Amino acid sequence: MTNPITAICVVYRTKALVQKAVESFRQFYTDVPLIVVDNSARDGECTRYLREITKRDEHTTIFIMDENVGHGPGMDYALHQIKTEWAYIFDSDTEMVKPGIIEEFELLSRDRSILAAGHIQLVSRKGRDSGKTKDIVNIQYVHPAICFINRKLYLECPPFRYHGAPCIGTYTKVHEQGMSDILLVNFPVESFVKHEWRGTRSFYKMKPWS
């Protein structure tokens, strides 16, 4: 590819979900580097499954965290590990249903001024949409369930944090700079990937998100 991409998936004790997510991705993209950040913090069935993957797939790397750091810090950790210009991030409760998402994004990524591409929704400064808050909802937010991130530009922004709205600090800063329409791009990720919205972790010892 002209602009190499590394895929990233953050997981937490959801073996059945992550198996579908990873194997559906690999069905169409066998050679794209994949980093899985495992927040399980124990050698359970999810971790064992991921260890088995790395034995047969040289393009997959797992990082096993000492504790459940959360979705945001997990993504941030992976974005500091990759060497490629772009990251393709997908949740562990997603399923890729057809190929083409990376090829279509490759055309868009020729514009290196883009920070993030994916499904854009409007949220408040606490990361809530209009149905969940009475606050002003005017921040463009690229949902991290399925998205593309420009690694270099991301590292110049406030990092992803917490879990429920892990990107809110990043995109609030972009909003305050008046750069949302330039740096963020609405991209039809849902045309290629199904998101089940089943969740990717429990609330056990989870840090707050707002």
What features would you describe in this structure?
This protein has 210 residues and is of the alpha/beta class. The protein has a single domain (5-195), classed as Alpha-Beta Complex (Spore Coat Polysaccharide Biosynthesis Protein SpsA, Chain A), CATH 3.90.550.10. Helix content is 30%, strand content 24%. The protein contains seven helices and nine strands, in the order βαβαβαββαββαααββ. The chain has helices at 15-28, 45-56, 71-81, 101-108, 151-154, 168-176, 180-183, and strands at residues 5-11, 34-38, 60-64, 86-90, 94-96, 116-123, 139-150, 184-186, 193-195. The strands form two sheets. Strands 3-2-1-4-7-6-8 form a seven-stranded mixed β-sheet, with helices on both faces. A two-stranded antiparallel ribbon has the order 5-9. α1 links the parallel β1 and β2 (34-38). α1 packs parallel to α2. It is globular. It starts with a strand and ends in a 15-residue tail after the last strand.
